[in-house]
Amino acid sequence: MFFSVTETKSFSFDNVNLETLLLFGKPSIYLFEEIPRATIGESAYLFPDSGHVCLRDDRRYIFFKNGPFGSAHTHSDNNSVCLYDKKKPIFIDAGRYTYKEEQLRYDFKRSTSHSTCTLDGESLEMIKDSWTYNSYPKCDYCQLTSKDRYHLVEGQLHVQRASDIYYHKRWLLTLPQAITLVIDKVNCPGEHVLTNQYILDDQVIYENGLVNDLKLVSPTTFNLEDCLISKRYNQLTESHKLVKKIKFVDEVMDYTLIVDRNCQVKCVPLVQTNSHKELSNSIAFDIRSQDFHYLIGVHMDDIIFGDKLYLMQGIKCKGKVIVYDKNNGKMSRLKN
Residue 88 is part of which domain span? Predict the structure, then answer.
C-alpha cells in the first residue's frame, strides 16, 4: 500500500486488516482496492551465505533453512522446513516469544521447537544463555537444483555428541500440484530413537491423515501432540505438532510425502537391472490425479555393486532423484 506496487499486493493479505487501517487510515481501504493484483509466478531462490531456500508457486510457499551460525541469538533451526498452502500456514516456526532471560526463551530457540529431526529426545544444541551457545549444529551444505518445474533442496548437518557424531541429511523434492516429498536420512552409531516432527499453525485442522487440504503419506504413523507457539512477542498460543518416533541402529531413512487430498498415491520399488534386487535406502511413488500422473524415484546411496541402472514400473532409470511425467513421457534427473 505504501509503494502502490502490483507485485507486492500479490503477496499481501486478501483484505485490509484492522492494523493496516489504523496505520494508514480510511483512504487505505480504497487505495488497496484500486491496486491491481499481479499474477504470482513460480520462483526458487537459494541464499548460500545464510542457508535459506525459498520456493513459491501459485499454491504453495516453502522456506528451508540450513546454514552457518548467524547472530548470537539465532535459533537452532537447521534442516527445518516451513510450508504454506493456499496462503495458509501449515508447518511453521514456533516463534520467539520474548527477549527476557527466562526458560521459555531458551525453549523456543531449541531444535525441538522446529520442524526438523532430533535424536534420543535431546536438542541438537547446548544453550548457555540468550546470546550464547556452548554448541550449535554444524551445517555441512545447503544446495538447490531446479529442472523442468521440479526443485530439489539438499541440506546436511552434523553434531558432535559426547560419545558419537550425529549426521542428518534432509532432501526436499517439490513438483507442481502441491506435491512435496521430505526425505530424512540419519546416521549415528549404536541404538537410537529418531524424532521427526512438524509444528502446526494453531488454525490448522488435522483429521484422518489430512492437514487442511493436504494428505500426508508416511511409513510411520504420526501422533498429534500439544505444543506452544508464539505469533507475537510476549504472547503464547496453544497449538499442536505432528510427531513420529523411529527406533534404529546406526542409520535410518524416513520420508513424509505431502500431496493434495484428491491425489492417489502408490509406493513402488526401485529394482536394479542386473541383480533384480530392490535398491536399499530407496523410495518411489506413483502419484496421480485427474490432471497429472508422475513417477518419483529416489535412492540416497551410491550404487557400488552391479548395474547403475534400475527399473521404476518397468521404466529404465539412472540417477539418485528422478521424476517421470507419464502424461508426456518426459524424464527429469535432478541428481546423478
Answer: 43-261
